[in-house]
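The protein record quoted in full:
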Amino acid sequence: MRIAVTSQNFKTITGHAGKARRFLIYETDGGPDPVELERLDLPKDMSVHEYHGEDHPLFQLGLAALVTQGAGQGFVQRMSRHGITVHATSESDPLPAVARVATGVPLAAALPHDHDHGPELVQIQEP
């Protein structure tokens, strides 16, 4: 089973999966010891958010799952169309998280997804 992890620093699990450009790719036989196969470092225009083709590099790797700290519903649906299950978690260490996904053990729940679009607009009603 191949599992990708969003990791902008190639050390920890990071969030905002749609805009992520760096991924750790692991292979696991379902046991507790996943093996890192490669590191994907994509240009900005190849984030899933920016790239709209069906030939994205993530779709070519034979992934079964993707682990991230945060993803929007559009990202989750797009991955699902390619047979990739998204696991959002608050965990930060890739290896144990990948091992848990591979063995079917639930991950710690993710923090709420935030699109970080700046300050929230508040409508003010005049008296």
Remarks:
- The longest strand covers residues 35-41.
- Confidence is low (pLDDT under 50) at residues 117-127.
- The two ends are 61 Å apart (CA to CA).
